[in-house]
Design a protein that fits this description.
two-stranded antiparallel ribbon, 443 residues, 15 helices, two-stranded parallel sheet, mainly alpha
Length: 443
């Protein structure tokens, strides 16, 4: 877990590391929107639309920098631990109004399982015919998600079973659901602790790229259709002239893609292995500092974004249910989205699954039950009673993802199916008004 996969050369000094951060992406020019959005939030707090646009633009470069820091850590501590650190920091610093928290947590699971995982499969499928990953580890993760979904469904079924019975009153039913939720939350936390021991210590080899359980990644046999489409569009663009002939450009692209073998390394743009060392862009202290600093900026900026969205929902232009289930998870998990998709193109599907599926497990098995337990300690009556539509959609999403990943391979069509399913969910929640059953505090 802590041993690098290849030999790492001497890290650069602090000055060179900072220079690498500044020049890491053209998205860094959007960093100027951070102070602008903060200033507008304090100077014009009633301009919700303007604040929303500015804070959204400010989060984009922060997400890219967070992906850059995570990728640097992955070459030193391993892809599994890097994905765990990224997801944990974002979840731990997320803030939201209490009435929206429950729906936004469900939305985070949906966006990670459908949108992020679908984008990873689709982006990787544009370069590789098939990408392999650890089948046993993914199946285990799917089982854990299924258990968490069952735990979420049970309180709702409990309430429905007791409704209409003469011996059960509304207050007694709510009190029984409260006690059930606290007991289930403790069991889920125990499962999550066991999962961490399994992933990081006893069976950490299952989550590595060189595991015997990982399927081989395959390139396209013959010509890459996505490359041919790009070349066709370039030929028909009269104002744009390619610097290379079509045959030379295609050969150069196909040289990048290995037709058969294991995952490619981040430092190489070809399949050759002439350089036995990895050249890091940043030192470890700078990478950790960048990860923490950017995550704090994301948390503060996201809080302003949440406040602006709350103002938009009060105007009636958009429903609170759509904001909580769709918009907030996309914005709040933007860094995870960028990280997962970026590394999937580099054929690091293990890290992509660690960020997308791993963060979903953290929400389902740790964040939700931890909130119930923490509220118990604080004397708050917090339950696991979720909106029925949200619970059903989450269960069906976990079931669909389980079918998609059961063969240990991915392609672009599977990614498109997951993304289209997420669009179906988004359309459904656009018209869904919500229900009072989503109240987290039992009076």
């Amino acid at each position: 877990m802590f041993t690098p996969e290849k030999t790492i050369s001497k890290p650069p000094n602090t000055l060179r590391s900072i220079r690498a951060i500044i020049l890491s992406s053209w998205f860094n020019v959007l960093l100027v929107f951070i102070p602008i959005s903060w200033a507008i939030n304090f100077a014009l707090p009633d301009q919700y639309t303007l604040i929303f646009v500015l804070t959204f633009l400010a989060i984009i470069p922060l997400a890219k920098l967070l992906a850059f820091a995570t990728d640097e850590l992955s070459i030193r501590v391993g892809q599994t631990l890097a994905g765990l650190l990224n997801a944990t920091l974002i979840i731990a610093l997320a803030k939201c109004e209490l009435t929206i928290v429950q729906s936004s947590l469900v939305g985070s699971i949906l966006s990670n399982l459908l949108l992020v995982l679908g984008m990873c499969f689709f982006a990787g499928g544009m370069r590789f015919s098939e990408q392999g990953f650890g089948q046993s580890a993914v199946q285990l993760n799917s089982s854990l998600l299924t258990i968490s979904v069952i735990a979420v469904l049970l309180p709702g079924a409990f309430k429905m079973a007791l409704q209409g019975q003469p011996a059960s009153t509304e207050s007694s039913t709510d009190y029984e659901i409260l006690k059930t939720s606290r007991g289930v939350a403790i069991i889920l936390l125990f499962i999550y602790g066991s999962y961490l021991v399994f992933q990081l210590f006893s069976h950490k080899a299952l989550y590595e790229d060189d595991s015997a359980d990982v399927q081989q990644t395959k390139g396209y046999a013959g010509q890459n259709p996505w490359l041919q489409l790009r070349l066709y569009r370039r030929k028909n663009a009269k104002s744009v002239q390619s610097p290379l002939p079509a045959g030379d450009e295609e050969a150069a692209f196909n040289h990048v893609v290995p037709t058969e073998g294991t995952h490619s390394e981040r430092e190489s743009e070809s399949i050759g292995d002439t350089d036995p060392e990895i050249d890091p862009y940043m030192s470890v202290p700078v990478s950790l500092g960048l990860l923490v600093f950017v995550t704090v900026l994301v948390a503060v900026t996201a809080e302003f974004l949440v406040d602006s969205i709350s103002g938009l929902t009060e105007s009636g232009a958009i429903s609170q249910e759509f904001v909580a289930v769709i918009l907030l998870p996309i914005v709040g998990n933007a860094a995870e989205h960028v990280t997962a998709v970026t590394v999937s193109v580099k054929d690091k599907l293990t890290l992509s699954l660690g960020v997308a599926v791993g963060s979903s497990i953290q929400i389902a098995l740790f964040v939700i039950p931890f909130m119930v337990t923490l509220a118990w300690i604080m004397g708050k009556r917090l339950t696991l009673l979720f909106d029925p539509l949200e619970s059903v959609v989450m269960f069906l999403s976990v079931l669909t993802v389980n079918y998609v990943v059961q063969d240990g391979k991915s392609n672009w069509l599977e990614g498109m199916v997951l993304m289209c399913l997420y669009l179906i969910v988004a359309v459904t929640f656009w018209f869904y008004p919500g229900t009072s059953l989503t109240e987290m505090f039992v009076n």
